[in-house]
Give the backbone structure.
Amino acid sequence: MPVTKAPRLTGLKKVEGKPVELLVHGQNMGDDAMLIVQLTNDGFELSDVVNMLSTSQMYLQGDMVKRITGKSVRTVRRLMKQGDPVRLDPRQSVIAYQYALVLELAIRAFAGLSRAEEWMQKPSPYLNGHVPLELTLHPLGFQMVEQYLNQILYGGYP
């Protein structure tokens, strides 16, 4: 029986930049946590989310699009072609931010995108055998992944 592949957001031009900067449309975040609360409450624009997703082959997979937006790849493509600005709701925006931040931290912690993507898709002994990519969807799982990556970056784990 043939295996069907998940639909992907293909044909996108890879946008250069850091995932969080692309998501917040280049706005300077600094140390202002309330700004991210405001931005997620307002909802990120779908085009900015798609730009963030384009930074990673792993994130262009159909299940990531659905995981973040709650919409199928076909629906996202159709919405993008219409040209009207579409905003995610606050919950979807928080999820998009979590994935952008984890990707950015993992790229820094593992010194490159390919190593970061590899780590994010495999069970990690430091996360009780859970897959970081799967944990990132849940708010508490995201905190665990973020904490682990910060410990790698600033000392504490090999």
Observations:
- Residues 90-109 form the longest helix (20 residues).
- Residues 19-154 form one domain.
